[in-house]
# Entry
Amino acid sequence: MEQFFATLGIWLGALFTFAIFSFLYKDNPFYKTAEQIFVGLSAGYWFVYTVFSILIPNLYDPLTQDFSANWIKIIPAILGIMMLMRLIPKTEWVSRFPISVVIGTTSGVFFLRYLKSDVLNQLTATMINPFIGENWVVIVGQILLIVGTITGVIYFYFSKKHTGALGVSAKIGIYFLMVSFGAAFGYTAMARISLLIGRLQFLLGDWLGIIQP
Amino acid sequence: MRKTKQIDRRWLFLLIFFGVALPLIFTIGLPLETTKNVHMVYDLIDGMPKGSRALLSFDYDPASMPELHPMAKAVVKHCFDKEINIIFTAMWPMGVQMADDIIEQLKDDYPDLKYGEDYVNLGFKAGGMITIQSMGKNFREVFPKDMNGSSIDELPIMEGINNFSNIGFVFSLSAGAPGIKEWVQIAHDAYGRPTSGGCTGVSAPAMLPYINEQKQLTGLLAGLKAAAEYETLIKTPGSATKGMDAQSIAHLIIIIFIAIGNINYWRDRKALKKGGK
# Structure
């Protein structure tokens, strides 16, 4: 029986892959069906997963097993219920309170972390002697890092017209930004092809058995 | 203005399809160079003493499996080869199954490994950065039990682990947030633990700045190419290495069409300057 369901799973996977790929030709009922089934399954899956992996182990179990040690969890539970009041138009305003708590705590926690990791540590990492390095490639790289960082930041300085030295620096900054966009595009193209490779390895290996999975 | 005739994009899709499928069937064996970032990850794991404990966080789901699963397998295999004990966690709900699948795939290669002694799966915990921050303060409060419901006090691998100080290094396999970024911000920047990771190609440009003089990130495995490089370094070619021919051919097709598109654009612009024909 286990083998039957494994085979059925592979066939369903293959058929749904083709149904989704068929969109590349043009929109069609096979694609629409696969898309709707995917949306429905995902919604159902995540609902069940949220209840059994988040709500029950983090709220229900602690409260029922040891209430005196975990009573404080009632507060987020009440906030959660208040959030659900968005579903009723008349009580929608109640949800503003839990949202403000979430925004307040998130900004408080994140501000410190991002300031340290994404501002201070990144700036410190740029404050290097560019001329000390194992070889000339490293030295050139370090010079580019410093020039790119400074000119890139200058491009985003909008309080003075970009003319003269400022304009030249901003122009160099644009070129660095263009290179970074190109790198991002290259990585994205690579990632999408990798996903196609994964699908074709499944079709040619697991489904057709032409290649070793 | 004279416009160059554009081909139907579906021909390009078909070309990419065959460009990927054929090299998977008929292997070419194009050379594969290993890069510095991948070497840094390899050196980090290779330099860990026997019996040290690593925290591997599976922060992805099946949507990113083609890119992240091969590198997860290679990294876990390398850890097992080096006799590094692994604590599996997940900041993404389906990361638990991802970790389980990797363990299942490697089980036959390492029959002597014991659950609870050599590795443990603590499961998923919601909360992202807040959860990671709490782990740094009190590990046992966040994960009092493993995914099977056993108290972590009963597991030898968890002996003496109260926060990140007893963890050799942290490695996040990340498809987004929470992922590498959050682990860098807390595990490295707040608690000073060596942190490394593997991510999808799409998110790589956002992670690369963390590989810097401050060593916020010790190397990075970015996409399927990096997974193939890692397989090469541990001398265990797997699905990532098999996909590299297809990846190279597909990139070649894309480059050729970008070049053709740009030449046509340049010709059209030149024709426009001349007054249009």
